[in-house]
Amino acid sequence: MELAALIVPIALFVMLLGAAVMVIWGRVTHIKRNILLGKPLFFYKTWAQDWASKDKKNLSFQTKAQNGVFESQLLINDQMQAQGRGQSGEIAENEAAKNFCQQERIDHNPSRMRNMLLIAFGQKKMFERPFVGFMHLVIYAGFLLINIELLEIVLDGLTGQHRLFSSLLGGVYTWLIGFFELTGLLVTLSCLVFLARRNVLKLGRFHKPEMQGWASTDANLILFFEMVLVSLLYTMNATDSLLQARGVEGYAHAGAEPMRFLCSQLVMPLYNGLSDSSLILLERVAWWGHISGILGFSIYVTYSKHLHIVLAFFNTYYADLGSRGQMKNMENITKEVKLAMGLIEDTAAADEPLDMSFGAKDVQQLSWKNLLDAYTCTECGRCTSVCPANLTGKKLSPRKIMMDTRDRLETVGEHLDNHNGQWVDDNKALYGDHISREEILACTTCNACVEACPVNINPLDIILQIRRHVTMEEANVPDAWKSMFANVENTQAPWAFPASDRFKWAEDLQK
Ligand code: SF4
Ligand code: SF4
Questions:
Q1: Does the CB atom of residue 377 touch ligand 2 within 6 A?
Q2: Which pLDDT tens digit goes with each residue over 18-53?
Q3: Cβ-count burial of 179 within 10 angstroms (0-12 exposed, 13-18 middle, 19+ buried)?
Q4: Which of 12, 92, 234, 315 is in Cβ range 3.0-4.6 Å of 376 for a Cys bridge?
């Protein structure tokens, strides 16, 4: 009986932990596969071929696609110099490899680490609004610190011990748990402030059309969930302290003296009238509820916007280190222009067909970084709150662009799973089924959304790629734009005046 009483909870705990780890691992694999459905980032094939032919080197790119997953490699004289997707191989000291690494975001590791530490870990951009930044930091720090406490709970569950660290740490243990409780109190207060901002003060950016339904519920649910976890911690600690004080077997040995913790001792009077058996039951329910809640929370996070807790680190690391306002050229067009201007020779290498689609209609035509951006979006709406198009009543919301991209990517991922990893057209696309022409054409390309994002997401890059599809594949732009494009083509300026007349305005100045 004694043995059964020890083994049954351990077996239950192992099953619970194992099931949670398997579900989380499955989700992580699914998300990683989805992000890698995006294209590689490098767009400088023609340039690199020029470089290689000048230096009489045999340069080649390999872009393999297996089950829709791209893998890009750069080879010089048949030696692999660099490999896409951040998996850097031996990076040789040559210009082509350096460019490749820059494009694929595997260069300048110290700067990338600095970005990650400042923006993701230090939450630098959150402090542009100091009060909210501080509240967010409290919740984030609470999340990290409570993970330390989780270590003891997991070890207790696996070994059948009770408060394993208390005998090891002595008096420090009481202070440490008290510190966790204080953190929990601050987390609860911050959650209440955040709930009030959303539901009582009704801040405008939390009530835009894209935030109706699940998006709003998700944000409230997670805040509520965190408060429940803290209250379970308090219940667990308060009942434990009472059981220790009464000398109940299994609890009296938890420390040299009955322990009272900083915050939970304040709620002890609530439970004082309960019998020993009721207290034990409540303590066990709180313990199991706390660990189950944390594991459930960890699974839930992988389905919600709170994935940013983890992905913000990757996203800030792989963020573009160049100027934020810089737009990337389309290699196909650059090549045509260079050929027309005689800047590159019309050689076999130049004739090699490139990918002849323009822009992006669906998520597979976006880059893996665009897709990582989509999964990282916190739905905070800072981008939308500074978007001039949105502020002047247009339908465009950069936050919605990111949410739509993630929704579509999840659908594509599920569709692949349902067809054994093979892509079968589902007759849907990001542009058209999620994002409309009206939204795409409303963007002023001002870059304010990119500046405002606290985790270095670039909604503009997705908008531009879809706009290129609308313009160049569908020619579905307003007539005024068409005239402007024709003028640029014919007179190298948006206005219909010949280039030779350009300095006419200065003629009078010479008189
Ligand atoms: S770049 Fe476009 S989407 Fe971003 S803030 Fe400016 S107008 Fe809005
Ligand atoms: S893109 Fe950035 S600023 Fe916009 S909602 Fe997402 S996390 Fe917030």
A1: yes
A2: 999 999 999 999 999 999 888 776 544 444 555 555
A3: middle
A4: 315
